[in-house]
Amino acid sequence: MLVDSSLIICDLNPAAENILDVSRPRARGESILKLVGDDPEFASILFKVLETGDNYANEFRLPPTEVHTRERILDCRVSPAEIGRARLLIELADVTRRSRISRENALLIQHGAGRKMVRQLAHEIKNPLGGIRGAAQLLERQLPDAEQREYTEVIISETDRLAGLVDTLLGPGGPPNKEPLNVHELLEYVVRLIEAENDARLDIRREYDPGLPEIALDRAQMVQALLNLVQNAVAALDGHGHITLKTRATHNFTIGDIRHRVVATIAIEDDGPGIPPELQDSIFYPLVTSRNEGTGLGLPAAQELISRHDGLIEFESRPGRTVFLVRLPLEQTTAHG
Fold this sequence. Notes:
Blueprint (H helix, E strand, L loop, with lengths): L1 E2 L5 E3 L2 H7 L3 H4 L4 H4 L4 H13 L3 E7 L9 E12 L2 E9 L1 H47 L3 H25 L8 E3 L1 H15 L5 E5 L7 E3 L1 H19 L4 E14 L2 E13 L27 H10 L4 E7 L2 E11 L6
Parallel strand pairs: 7-9
Antiparallel strand pairs: 1-2, 1-5, 3-4, 4-5, 6-8, 9-10, 10-12, 11-12
């Protein structure tokens, strides 16, 4: 695109028309800021190039449009130019898919590191706990004084509590026991559990795809994974806001190095404050949480359970909208990409 000193579009090529969802006649004479959601950071960059004459290159996010319902990531290059009344040359490239694949790979790496950490924690904590508990039981039998036995009971109780914490971290064990299941029935079951815990005061909305087929899943493991995600959304809202459950089929989706012809996408969305930016790169690691009362175990456990079904959990978060996306393959192929 060519833009003048007031950031009015002088001209643009067909590629820019496609990215911005606007025709050339309609775009000419419009402010570039109007077409990219009035992004103040983008505006400051354009004015800085006008002022200094320096080149600029970076990525920025393009908000959803009528044509593109999801946010996109653009690679943007801005250069000074003097072509007629134009003073800036703006080059845009849609890199959403590339960024998504990079993000997925980062999540898979994070999950692998988290799983390794879990195994190390289980080995280092659980084995000694068994010895401590056994020694406390033996000591308890040797103590004639009931008041002294209270101390051994505390030791036994606390070791049991720590063993339970490790079991929670590991999640339900064993390979999935798969059977054909309706994901909407699973979601409704989870909703009933959540409403029972929260006195049915939640505003939960549904946008289900009725054409989604049954999927071979382990019921107990999937209920636990979805329950962890919905509980996180409930906690984020703190009693105020909405949760939306969505399902749809997504075609030609890559998880790791496997391209799946179709995956089921389960979205759990809330309109809470969002995940703090400083935690967004590490929320799937064990013990990472932004809540004082949180354990930081729910998300890594959910990711582990979904990975046992060859799936992946992704997320998008900003203030006012956080969505966790569960991707579950309907049919695997051997294609790589």
